[in-house]
């Protein structure tokens, strides 16, 4: 079993199975470019730095990849927008503790940076589910978004929305 | 400490004596006033460092919405003027008051307007600062009263260079009279003391002028700020919760306070110049009052120069935070935080914590209440992570939402509002069957959107309990006819077009139909503009580029009064999947298009026109281009009336000169398969007049047409062609046309068929027109 070491922005090392990293487009490209797949190359001696991902977030990402080991990797970006995405129960439980906090969003950003499409899709779906059926003030309260609109602006947006109803 | 204070007072007293120089009272050269300048220079240095820091921060963020506003542009320009004026003031004071280079030095620079510059710079910088204050006052008035006005956005869009040049020139314009005043000189008196000499009339005139300018400016500024305060008080009482939550409101309040502080500095200048005016008018040039006033002029000078950075630092938590790297910023920040009893860490911990939403809400309410109590100590450190998501992540999230969710989301924050507008096309669109502009119902015209009823699935399940009901249900269109509440006839056309475009951005329509639309310049302009999303971005913040094109765009122009312009047709053709141009004209005037339309017409899958002028090379090139580009595509041409204008007849070799026009009713489908074109002709009547024609555009030496087609067909078509060629002008009747089958008529260029009699006249016309088209095609292909 080939192990490849990932180094987070806070200098934490994470030895990860080569097979798991196929889910990440960014790391896969790095591995290919660094010839880490070659038998002659000592992969363990060449850690991959990930300066944009913190240690705790990277740990969560690896945890997610371990669970989804063997899942088909999504390719391309032309899938139908209207296709309904269902978040599996395990992923729902995985995202829930960090929901409404910075951790979940950091996980999403990390998924985007590491190009893990399945994680990004599910994470975004989980975030989008928190918006559904809510009013603006409810979303603001849950996500800690301050109201930046003046009453005049709110009125203008309200009128804008009336076009559709 | 007492010693320092006493020393400062002594030097200030000396200063009072020195200022008598202004009125030609000479003194002996003084030692440099260390205790006078030390605190002033220290304050000036700290303030300038702070000012530079703030200007740098503003410059770095000049592309952001907040710092590209008019206020910050003027703040930046004012900063440059303030820093320059203070440096100039101190140096000038050192040179001709403290005479650090000696009195003889002053006499050596007594030329080239240097004395004038040492006198007039005060007025120049004063008027520049007043000009900035006036502009900022007016801007605050508009920003608070009309936050969404076009005037405000226009102000924000002024280029900073333009504002800078205007600020540079304005003081010169209102001080033009200085150029005609007696020159200022450095003179030595009998005792050998050197000082600045100003003509008494100059002093008087400038005092009056300055007093008028500052008083008028103060009155204008005061009126503006009174109005602003009144509005702020109204907002305060109207909606306290929103006020406290609104970051935008806090920003507006902060910069309004900064503007007001500058106004107070202007008031101090007004007081100074008013008192000077009174003293000068009473011929008290050398009076104690004037001396005292002149010794204090540094106060209003420094106030005007440094009120901006300090006021901004005190009122804006964001600025404090951003200037936190500097020692001064840290000091001010910590002091402000202490005063406000507000802990930034507490709020950060609040958001970072994994507390249940209910607890967070409670804490959020407490903080809101606390910030309400703090009045001007307005913290701006709530960690709004969702609004700071990178755009690509936001786009992924929006993909999982539909347009209605987006409407809710854009009400939450400025950032999400912006992202909602940018990624509107990424979200899931609701399906719609047809959009029709206009739907005529009982004589009234409406914009109609036929869409699937949202309750369709439930309704279907309910109805599907019985087989008979299910069949009944299928017969009834399960759509919800959505009708707009205003009549098109009473509405502004641009509004209707915007409405249509708005709906197209929200719904994935199978068909977009424009029926009975008067296509004039207004329509073309409005629709083209809306289609490109330029006006909508501003008015409705929508991006109207369609992510999913409708399959058919059906333009039924029953009242074409002008030529459709090129950009409109191009965007039309490019925006739909299967574009059809369906243009009908009720008038005798044919649908005319210019030659440059050939490429555009080739973009359409279907050209349906009742009267179209054809025959020129460009229409052929359009069709050929289309076919060549889409090798397997087809063009459907239903041309019911084709007019050959005399001037283009000679281009069509197959038409004799005595044929003025031909017309037919039917449908011509030209197809390209491999290297061969097929002309498939169908009449409106269907069966009896069905004719298939195929031909080759290969070079003749490479073609063996007889081997490609069935011999029987070739024989028949050859026979017809030769027969027609041998007997031009003779009556020809075609019977049982559908039995003829494919006919090769590529060489039949000189066929003339009399169309006056016989049951086959219609077919003859078709034959003639097709032969004409094919001949032109072949000629084009050969060339």
From TrEMBL, chain A:
Biological process, per Gene Ontology: protein ubiquitination; SCF-dependent proteasomal ubiquitin-dependent protein catabolic process
Bias kind Basic and acidic residues: ranges: 156-165
Top-level taxon: Eukaryota
InterPro entries in the record: SKP1, SKP1-like, SKP1-like_dim_sf, SKP1/BTB/POZ_sf, Skp1_comp_dimer, Skp1_comp_POZ
UniProt keyword Nucleus present: no
Start and end residues of each stretch annotated as Disordered: 145-165
Entry keyword annotation includes Zinc: no
UniProt keyword terms in alphabetical order: Ubl conjugation pathway
GO CC term, one of those recorded: nucleus
Gene Ontology MF terms in the entry: cullin family protein binding
Pathway: Protein modification; protein ubiquitination
Membrane-spanning intervals of the chain: none
Family: Belongs to the SKP1 family.
Function: Probable essential component of SCF (SKP1-CUL1-F-box protein) E3 ubiquitin-protein ligase complexes, which mediate the ubiquitination and subsequent proteasomal degradation of target proteins. Regulates cell proliferation during embryonic and larval development.
The protein's name: Skp1-related protein
Name of the gene encoding the protein in the UniProt record: WBGene00273347
From TrEMBL, chain B:
TM segment ranges: 36-58, 70-91, 121-146, 158-180, 207-228, 253-278, 298-319
InterPro entries membership: 7TM_GPCR_serpentine_rcpt_Srv, F-box-like_dom_sf, F-box_dom, Nematode_SR-like
Domain of life: Eukaryota
Basic and acidic residues: bias regions: 357-371
Annotated segments matching region Disordered: 350-371
One matching Pfam family: F-box
Alphabetical UniProt keywords: Membrane, Transmembrane, Transmembrane helix
Name of the protein in question: G protein-coupled receptor
Organism field: Pristionchus pacificus (Parasitic nematode worm)
């Amino acid at each position: 079993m080939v192990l490849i070491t990932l180094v987070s922005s806070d200098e934490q090392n994470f030895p990860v199975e080569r097979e798991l990293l196929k889910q990440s487009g960014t790391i896969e490209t790095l591995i290919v470019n660094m010839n880490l797949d070659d038998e002659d190359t000592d992969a363990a001696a060449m850690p991959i730095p990930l300066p944009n991902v913190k240690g705790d977030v990277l740990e969560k990402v690896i945890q997610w990849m371990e669970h989804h080991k063997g899942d088909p990797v999504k390719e391309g970006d032309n899938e139908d927008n209207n296709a309904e995405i269902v978040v599996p129960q395990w992923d729902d439980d995985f995202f829930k503790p960090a929901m409404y906090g910075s951790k979940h969003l950091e996980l999403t950003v990390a998924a985007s940076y590491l190009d893990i499409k399945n994680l990004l899709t599910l994470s975004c779906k989980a975030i989008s589910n928190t918006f559904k059926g809510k009013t603006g003030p409810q979303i603001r309260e849950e996500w800690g978004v301050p109201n930046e609109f003046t009453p005049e602006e709110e009125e203008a947006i309200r009128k804008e929305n009336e076009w559709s109803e | 400490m007492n010693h320092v204070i006493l020393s400062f007072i002594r030097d200030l007293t000396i200063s009072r004596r020195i200022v008598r120089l202004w009125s030609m009272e000479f003194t002996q050269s003084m030692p440099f006033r260390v205790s006078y300048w030390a605190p002033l220079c220290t304050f000036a240095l700290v303030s300038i460092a702070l000012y530079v820091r703030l200007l740098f921060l503003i410059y770095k963020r000049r592309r952001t919405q907040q710092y590209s506003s008019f206020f910050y542009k003027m703040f930046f320009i004012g900063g440059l003027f303030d820093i320059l004026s203070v440096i100039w003031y101190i140096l000038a004071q050192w040179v001709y008051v403290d005479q650090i280079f000696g009195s003889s030095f002053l006499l050596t620079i007594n030329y080239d307007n240097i004395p004038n510059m040492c006198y007039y710079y005060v007025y120049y910088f004063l008027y520049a600062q007043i000009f900035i204050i006036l502009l900022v006052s007016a801007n605050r008035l508009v920003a608070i009263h009309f936050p969404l006005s076009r005037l405000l956005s226009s102000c924000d869009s002024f280029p900073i260079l333009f504002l800078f040049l205007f600020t540079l020139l304005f003081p010169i314009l209102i001080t033009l009279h200085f150029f005609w005043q007696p020159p200022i000189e450095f003179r030595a008196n009998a005792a050998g003391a050197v000082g600045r000499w100003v003509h008494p009339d100059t002093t008087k005139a400038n005092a009056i002028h300055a007093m008028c300018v500052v008083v008028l400016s103060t009155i204008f500024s005061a009126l503006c700020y009174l109005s602003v305060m009144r509005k702020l008080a109204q907002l305060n009482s109207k909606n306290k919760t929103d006020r406290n939550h609104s970051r935008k409101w806090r920003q507006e309040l902060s910069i309004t306070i900064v503007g007001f502080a500058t106004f107070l500095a202007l008031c101090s200048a007004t007081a100074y110049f008013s008192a000077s005016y009174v003293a000068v008018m009473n011929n008290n040039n050398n009076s104690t009052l004037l001396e005292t006033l002149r010794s204090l002029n540094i106060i209003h000078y420094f106030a005007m120069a440094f009120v901006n950075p300090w006021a901004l630092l005190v009122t804006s938590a964001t600025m404090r935070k951003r200037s936190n790297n500097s020692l001064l910023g840290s000091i001010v920040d910590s002091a402000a935080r202490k005063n406000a009893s507000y802990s930034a860490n507490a709020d950060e911990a609040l958001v970072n914590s994994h507390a249940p939403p209910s607890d967070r809400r409670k804490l959020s309410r407490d903080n809101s209440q606390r910030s309400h109590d703090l009045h001007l100590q307005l913290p701006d450190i709530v960690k709004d992570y969702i609004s700071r998501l990178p755009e690509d992540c936001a786009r992924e999230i929006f993909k999982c939402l539909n347009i209605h969710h987006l409407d809710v989301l854009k009400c939450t924050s400025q950032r999400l509002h912006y992202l909602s507008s940018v990624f509107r096309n990424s979200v899931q669109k609701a399906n719609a069957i047809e959009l029709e502009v206009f739907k005529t119902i009982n004589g009234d015209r409406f914009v109609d959107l036929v869409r699937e009823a949202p309750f369709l699935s439930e309704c279907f399940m309910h109805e599907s309990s019985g087989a008979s009901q299910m069949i009944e249900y299928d017969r009834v269109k399960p759509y919800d006819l959505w009708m707009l509440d205003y009549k098109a006839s009473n509405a502004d056309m641009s509004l209707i077009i915007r409405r249509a475009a708005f709906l197209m951005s929200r719904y994935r329509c199978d068909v977009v139909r424009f029926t009975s639309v008067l296509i004039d310049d207004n329509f073309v302009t409005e629709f083209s503009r809306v289609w490109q999303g330029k006006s909508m971005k501003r008015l409705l913040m929508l991006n109207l580029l369609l992510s999913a094109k409708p399959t058919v765009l059906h333009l039924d122009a029953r009242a074409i009064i002008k030529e459709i312009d090129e950009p409109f047709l191009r965007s039309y053709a490019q925006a739909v999947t299967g574009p059809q141009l369906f243009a009908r004209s009720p008038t005798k005037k044919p649908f005319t298009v210019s030659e440059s339309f050939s490429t555009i017409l080739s973009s359409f899958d279907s050209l349906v026109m009742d009267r179209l002028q054809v025959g020129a090379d460009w229409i052929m090139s359009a069709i050929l281009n289309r076919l060549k580009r889409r090798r397997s595509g087809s063009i459907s041409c239903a041309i019911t009336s084709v007019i050959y204008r005399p001037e283009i007849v000679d281009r069509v070799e197959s038409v004799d000169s005595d044929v003025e026009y031909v017309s037919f009713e039917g449908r011509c489908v030209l197809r390209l398969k491999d290297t061969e074109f097929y002309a498939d002709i169908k009449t409106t009547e269907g069966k009896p007049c069905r004719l298939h024609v195929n031909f080759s555009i290969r070079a003749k030496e490479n073609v063996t047409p007889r081997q490609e087609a069935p011999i029987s067909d070739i024989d028949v078509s050859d026979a017809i062609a030769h027969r027609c060629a041998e007997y031009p002008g003779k009556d020809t009747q075609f019977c049982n046309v559908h039995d003829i089958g494919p006919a090769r008529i590529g060489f039949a260029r000189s066929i003339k068929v009399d169309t006056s009699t016989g049951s086959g006249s219609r077919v003859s016309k078709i034959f003639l027109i097709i032969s004409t088209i094919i001949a032109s095609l072949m000629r084009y292909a050969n060339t």
